TrEMBL record:
Swiss-Prot/TrEMBL keywords: Ubl conjugation pathway
PROSITE patterns noted in UniProt: UBC_2
Ranges of compositional bias, category Basic and acidic residues: 125-152
The keyword Signal belongs to this UniProt entry's keyword annotation: no
Organism encoding this protein: Sparassis crispa
Pfam family of the protein (one): UQ_con
Record flagged with keyword Oxidoreductase: no
Protein name per its UniProtKB record: Ubiquitin-conjugating enzyme E2 2
InterPro entries from the UniProt entry: Ub_conjugating_enzyme, UBC, UBQ-conjugating_enzyme/RWD
Length: 152
């Protein structure tokens, strides 16, 4: 059994037995390749009352390498309007790239993104949204983001 499968089995068991933090729900985890979770930012924020879905894709090197994580954009869900979130759902967040650590979990990523949304001061897309979306790879992990703005 692959390390990624063992790790994901443990994370799924923890979610099922311990639950998830407030505002985070497991939508589906039918296999160890793709999971869907929802996040809601609670309290008085720019996103009050909005619910977003996240898609996690795992490869065989998880947790050594980060999962591919993006907001779901479909008939039911939209990506949040945020300076670090592109309209196609791709997220420019260092923990999904060069600051990934194998100690992070699916829930830790959700909590971090929940916090990123909660601290947002102004709803706006990244300045290069249209250019990026028109040329973006399907997998956000194939993008080399520049992480230079932590005070959004």
């Amino acid at each position: 059994m692959a390390v990624s499968t063992r790790r994901l089995q443990k994370e799924l068991k923890d979610i099922q037995t311990q639950g998830t933090p407030v505002g985070i729900k497991l939508l589906s985890a039918d296999d160890f390749q793709t999971w869907f979770l929802s996040i809601e930012v609670l309290g008085e924020t720019q996103y009050e009352g909005e619910v977003f879905a996240l898609k996690f894709r795992f490869d065989s090197s998880y947790p050594i390498s980060s999962p591919a994580v993006q907001f779901v954009v479909d008939e039911k869900f939209q990506a949040p309007v945020h300076p670090h979130v592109y309209s196609n759902g791709h997220i420019c967040a260092s923990i999904l790239g060069n600051e990934w650590s194998p100690v992070l979990s699916v829930i830790a990523v959700c909590v971090t993104l929940q916090s990123m949304l909660a601290s947002c001061k102004k709803k706006e897309r990244p300045p290069d949204n249209d250019r990026y979306v028109s040329h973006a790879p399907e997998n956000p992990k194939k993008t080399q983001f520049l992480y230079h703005d932590d005070d959004v």
